[in-house]
Fold each of these.
Amino acid sequence: AQSVTQLGSHVSVSEGALVLLRCNYSSSVPPYLFWYVQYPNQGLQLLLKYTTGATLVKGINGFEAEFKKSETSFHLTKPSAHMSDAAEYFCAVSEQYGGSQGNLIFGKGTKLSVKP
Amino acid sequence: GAGVSQSPSNKVTEKGKDVELRCDPISGHTALYWYRQSLGQGLEFLIYFQGNSAPDKSGLPSDRFSAERTGGSVSTLTIQRTQQEDSAVYLCASSSSRTGGFSSYNEQFFGPGTRLTVL
């Protein structure tokens, strides 16, 4: 079965520092790939997605992620953290085949803290 | 408000009682998904509707859980004889069609969730 692994349940960075949140997936067939953000007591918001085409994808709030098929990875980065980036981040996949229901399979999440 | 709405936002119930959770998808969205977010299990997929039909109910955690969708719009998730382990945030998402498959990607838009607490 498809699975998603996020390394590090908690990541802490200083304001202005690089943010790197790691995500690996298990499928041998590249799925659709997503990063979602969840602020406290709120729903999930899509940050960015990879479906086809360019492997470096840019999302909202200055985040980007690179799909690396050889590494089965889709790590999320942001060059300079801002206090408002403090939230929980979820990597997710959706399988690409005709019978797929299209449901998302999520990683366990990484809680990002940003220190002033 | 054009987003996905869910009600109630919070629900506290006693063990053994039945609860109904409601999801109003974005108008015109044919695909609807239910997920559960809990401390122990993270985010889990529960069930998917295409129109009023749920082709696969195997994601529901037990036979106490059921869901329906009427008129291709509103969906209700019902939990009978609630247990403490049912305590979680129940999230609903809708998309213009199913997200994966050979069709083009269709983003899932999430509602704010219903926080269920079973005492």
Amino acid sequence: GAGVSQSPSNKVTEKGKDVELRCDPISGHTALYWYRQSLGQGLEFLIYFQGNSAPDKSGLPSDRFSAERTGGSVSTLTIQRTQQEDSAVYLCASSDRDREGYEQYFGPGTRLTVT
Amino acid sequence: SQKIEQNSEALNIQEGKTATLTCNYTNYSPAYLQWYRQDPGRGPVFLLLIRENEKEKRKERLKVTFDTTLKQSLFHITASQPADSATYLCALGGKLSFGAGTTVTVRA
């Protein structure tokens, strides 16, 4: 079946602009995660959605970052007033929390470059 | 603070040999631990999950051990092949916390 998809695959933006990154999780997966992978920093958790519960935003680095998940499916990560330190690969993952195991299925990522 | 350490950044081995990767963690009490593979330009791919009550788990040529007393997991790739060359990541928790990864290169 279809895996997790993300768009765009690459995004170049000027400092100070807003960007929106999209994630389409695997159909039926109730949990959705956003991570950031920076050069030399490893993978860093940003935000987690589970069903209709309030999202866990504990990993968001600043209030310039926000995310929403509409209809329990597609999610959008928004970065306002982008800074050069926001340059990274943004990865989305989904999992079926109802199944034992909780392995996560990752999308290919969006590479964000802030100039 | 919580920390996950993987033994080395890079591991170079000859084809056919066993690669052994180490993941050590502090200030966690995980119910399970996961291993992922990441190829350049791609997202991580789930390989294995091992629970705290399991000592060992196998999947084809992969073997994972989990010692909650030592707070350590070992990941073995037996009969390694050049196609096994990738970065391997150890992860803990539901909101995954990842180690920095170990890049394995298998020489033909």
